[in-house]
Amino acid sequence: MSTGTGTEPVTGTGVVDEAVRGRPAPALRGLVGWYSGYRQRGVPPTRHRGLPSPYLTLILTLDEPLTVAAHPDPAEPPGDFSALVGGLHTTPALISVPGRQSGVQIALDPLGARVLLGLPAGALAGADLAAQDVLGPSVADVLDRLRAAPDWAGRFAVVDAWLLDRARADPRAGVRLHPEVRHAWRLLAATGGTIGVARLAAEVGWSDRRLRDRFAAEVGLSPKAAARVIRFDRTRRGLASYGAAEGRLARIAVDRGYFDQAHMDREFRALAGCPPTLWLAEERRNIQSGHHPSE
User: Fold this and answer.
1) Domain covering 4-169 in this structure, CATH number
2) With a threshold of 0.85, does the pTM exceed it?
3) Which part of the chain is CATH 2.60.120.10?
4) What letter does residue 196 receive in the DSSP assignment?
5) What H or E segment, with its residue span, contains residue 254?
6) Residue 171 — very low, low, confident or very high, per pLDDT cuts 50/70/90?
7) Angle, CA 255 vertex, CA 227 and CA 49 arms, to 5°
């Protein structure tokens, strides 16, 4: 059963600001990174950047829909979603938060997409889709059960049960995944995205082209783009943990494998749509309340 840790609601001020982190059931680890439960009421209206991440995103809302003002793919129109699944991407989404939001966000390992979603992560590359269109009518049922659960532990248990049912439905779904792709993804994650593509191909025993084609079809990004996203994600987490005090940005840049701070700033702008200092200023409330854990 999942357990949650995080902030408690703020009381006595009319403001609710909950952020709770949950671990998936043991049988789901390796397929799911974590659950994030959130509920905010009475906070200032804002826009939140949905940043590139090495995890697919599955969001199940509780009290109100998720309003996506801009998708990673600019051709997709804005819209409201009761549940959303998003593939890996290299540009941010923009989420409108009109002073209130609530739901459970599930971080899905791209190598677990075949088992839990029934299709490779590559089929969702750069896309945000209504979860019902990908996962079928079970989404409506899990939303009802989530909304009936009394607390975050109960909500995470509902998600556990739903995903375990999906994993058991087709135990062969992961067999079609090339072990070389799995090994390449694990090497990228273990090195924080700092391993070069030529060395990565040599490690798995494929040519650069074969690795690029098979990897992109399965994961949704090329190995080079995946390395950028993994390194960016580690950078973003370092910023959330340590901030931008004098000299800190330069140290984070070196620790994350960038040439220097200017290189890190360019990559951050390209992937987040803004410089690191602006992102920190925009997300300060979420960081302080626990919406951006460092692990």
Assistant:
1) 2.60.120.10
2) yes
3) 4-169
4) -
5) helix 248-255
6) low
7) 55
Q: Mean pLDDT throughout 270-281?
A: 92
pLDDT grade for 246, boundaries at 50, 70 and 90? low
Measured CA to CA, the distance from residue 155 to residue 102 in angstroms comes to 12
What is the 3-class SS of 15-71, one letter each residue? Answer: CEEEEEEECCCHHHECCEEEEEEEEEECCCCEEEEECCCCCEEEEEECCCCEEEEEC
In the chain, CATH 1.10.10.60 covers 178-295
CATH number listed for the domain at residues 178-295: 1.10.10.60
- In one-letter notation, the amino acid at residue 23 is R
| Burial grade of 219 (CB within 10 A; 0-12, 13-18, 19 or more) | buried
Question: Is the Cβ–Cβ distance between 276 and 250 less than 8 Å?
Answer: no
Which residue(s) pair with 35 in the sheet?
Answer: 22, 106
